[in-house]
Amino acid sequence: MNSFSAATFAERGAPRQNPRIARLASDWSAADGLYCKSYCPLHPKVHEVVFALIDELCDVFEADTFHSGMDEVFYIGNDKCPRCGGKDKASLFAGEVRTIHDHLASTHRQLWIWGDRLLDGHVTGLGEWEASYNETAPAIDQIPKDVLICDWHYDQPVPTAAYFATKGFHVVSCPWKNPASAVKQVEDLLRFKTESPPDMAGRFDGVVQTIWSDMGSFLSREKTNPDRDGGTNQWNTFVRSFDAINQAGKAAKAEMPAVK
Ligand SMILES: [Zn+2]
Predict the structure, then answer these.
(1) If you measure from the C-alpha of residue 118 to the centroid of ligand 1, how many angstroms do you get, rounded to a whole number?
(2) CATH 3.20.20 given to domain 6-255
(3) CA of 187 to the centre of ligand 1 (A)
(4) Which of 21, 38, 237, 244 could be disulfide-bonded to 75 (CB atoms 3.0-4.6 Å)?
(5) Where are the domains of the chain?
(6) pLDDT digit string (tens) for 169-204?
């Protein structure tokens, strides 16, 4: 469930139509072309709503981990907000991560978030979706280390998984629909594991394929026609990257001494 950002993503979905959520959204302008409002993390009523949604989802799916989104937070610390105005944006972001983390921890559940707000766009040159240009990146040193980071890069295999691991986080690399980039992400992750000391090697947890369409498009249109869009599609990416994982697994097994 997307929380914090994208609280009113597009026009559909129960949380998005919930007038209580809409009232909690921060000041926002549609004129800048960004689709997502954020809720005010310091609104005294916001977590009553957010926790109820999280708890219901976790209970229904019997989940022991929860992906809270928290990507693409563009509106944070708005000067017009009587609670957030003038506050440090990294601290606001980190505070919200910690609040959701602690709530989940109280029922022995782990928090997963996207990594983009923890990457500095000014320094890396990554785009405004893929990294932060609104000064949230220092939050990386202010959030609990047992938050798992989903390090998404869709166009090229930017090697930031190593950055998250050196900061003490477990991390998964997340491709989308670029098969060549996804295979490189698998190879990079394996290389990082092999070439790191054990403490750090143990933090590269794998690859999570993202799908940004309805399931029908993924399974019916792309699966039956993997060459669709010149092969640049979600299904082809999924197959090629997981083939790379399986091949690496077989190679590792072949290198292991035979058990007699
Ligand atoms: Zn606020």
Answers:
(1) 20
(2) yes
(3) 42
(4) 38
(5) 6-255
(6) 999 999 999 999 999 999 999 999 999 999 999 999
